[in-house]
């Protein structure tokens, strides 16, 4: 397969960014940054202009997710990776149960399992491309899993665990799901994510919707004798978020572009608009793969297939890595598979900022590369 192959311009997508994160940023978000250059960028995050921006984000996200009135939007610096440690210190009282069905769910499981002040975690695993289900277990006070496994393209429902201890919490990693997959956030106590996926901003920030029970748990643990580093103290993040700020300085450009995306989503119909759009994009890929003689959806169970990360396997007659390289040489980028999965496949983000018609154009480009190699 020749990487030097030129794909005809009329076949190319308008925007060739299909990465699983950081994701495509809409031009309107870049324009919002330009407009913020004099009155927001380069100003103090403790003063009214930036605090008002944070407040707008918090209110916009509660609206988007149709969150219960008593849920709070908490923000902190460090992204979802930092939040795994924050939750380990500040949400798990004694024992967590994790669903591990890919790279990212396993990382939070490792964090709680390695914590010397917690009991050994209960970790329920399944093979990549499938998902396990939570099981009520006496003594477990946090049940945790990803709503969307970014490495494999498997989606898992968000729900309460039947039979779980009454004061247990449901903690959902929604980093690549939030803003693109349907959810009833009242079924979770903590629904956390970073903004570089469906919210089309940059990384380095974590955002979470907290139930009153989760707030109470964080306050309970913070008042105990457990030592918690200041940066990882969840009570500190909650207190600062109530003041429309973060404990330490956030990236203002991230906040500006995030707010622009939240406003766009809400103006167009909120979560219903977003989920219909990602479903449209993902369906185009899955239907194409199912009809193909050389490709197939990696996730075999249709009900487990993600609408924001589509993984497509190719048979041995096709070198998917070479296809990805040829696409990249033509400006169609970031469709390589997750490196640790090691499969002959393409991984395509169908986040809400991506135009469904660009997904159709991507399919035509793949077909052109295969037909002319």
Automatic annotation (TrEMBL):
Pathway: Amino-acid biosynthesis; L-serine biosynthesis; L-serine from 3-phospho-D-glycerate: step 2/3. Its cofactor is pyridoxal 5'-phosphate. It comes from the Bacteria. SUPFAM superfamilies: PLP-dependent transferases (SSF53383). Pfam families: Aminotran_5 (PF00266). Belongs to the class-V pyridoxal-phosphate-dependent aminotransferase family. SerC subfamily. Residues 142-332 form the Aminotransferase class V domain. Catalyzes the reversible conversion of 3-phosphohydroxypyruvate to phosphoserine and of 3-hydroxy-2-oxo-4-phosphonooxybutanoate to phosphohydroxythreonine. It catalyses: 4-(phosphooxy)-L-threonine + 2-oxoglutarate = (R)-3-hydroxy-2-oxo-4-phosphooxybutanoate + L-glutamate; O-phospho-L-serine + 2-oxoglutarate = 3-phosphooxypyruvate + L-glutamate. GO terms for molecular function: O-phospho-L-serine:2-oxoglutarate aminotransferase activity. This is phosphoserine transaminase. Its EC number is 2.6.1.52. InterPro entries: Aminotrans_V_dom, Pser_aminoTfrase, Pser_aminoTfrase_mycobac, PyrdxlP-dep_Trfase, PyrdxlP-dep_Trfase_major, PyrdxlP-dep_Trfase_small. It is an enzyme of class 2 (transferase).
């Amino acid at each position: 397969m020749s990487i030097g192959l030129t794909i005809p311009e009329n076949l190319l997508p308008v925007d060739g960014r299909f990465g699983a994160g950081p994701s495509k940023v809409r031009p309107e978000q870049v324009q919002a940054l330009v407009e913020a250059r004099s009155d927001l960028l380069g100003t103090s995050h403790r003063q009214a202009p930036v605090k008002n921006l944070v407040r707008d984000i918090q209110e916009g996200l509660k609206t988007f997710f149709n969150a219960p009135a008593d849920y709070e939007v908490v923000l902190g610096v460090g992204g979802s990776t930092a939040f795994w440690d924050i939750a380990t210190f500040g949400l798990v009282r004694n024992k967590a149960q994790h669903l591990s069905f890919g790279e990212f769910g396993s990382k939070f499981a490792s964090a709680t399992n390695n914590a010397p002040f917690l009991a050994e975690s209960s970790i329920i695993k399944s093979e990549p491309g499938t998902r396990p289900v939570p099981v009520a277990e006496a003594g477990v006070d946090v049940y945790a899993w990803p709503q969307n496994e970014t490495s494999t393209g498997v989606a898992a429902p968000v729900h309460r665990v039947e039979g779980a201890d009454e004061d247990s919490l449901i903690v959902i990693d929604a980093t690549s799901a939030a803003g693109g997959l349907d959810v009833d956030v009242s079924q979770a106590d903590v629904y956390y994510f970073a903004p570089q996926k469906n919210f089309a901003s940059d990384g380095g920030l974590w955002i979470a919707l907290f139930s009153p029970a989760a707030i109470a748990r964080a306050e309970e643990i913070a008042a105990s004798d457990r030592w918690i580093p200041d940066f990882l103290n969840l009570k500190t993040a909650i207190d600062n978020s109530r003041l429309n700020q973060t404990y330490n300085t956030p990236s203002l450009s991230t906040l500006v572009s995030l707010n622009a995306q939240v406003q766009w989503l809400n103006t167009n119909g909120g979560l219903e608009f977003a989920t219909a759009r990602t479903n449209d994009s993902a369906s185009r890929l899955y239907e194409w793969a199912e009809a193909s003689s050389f490709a197939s959806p990696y996730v075999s169970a249709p009900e487990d297939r993600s609408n924001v990360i589509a993984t497509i396997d190719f048979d041995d007659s096709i070198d998917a890595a070479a296809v990805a390289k040829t696409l990249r040489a033509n400006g169609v980028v970031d469709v390589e598979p997750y490196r640790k999965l090691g499969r002959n496949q393409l991984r395509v983000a169908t986040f809400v900022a991506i135009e469904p018609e660009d997904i159709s154009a991507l399919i035509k480009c793949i077909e052109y590369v295969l037909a002319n190699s």
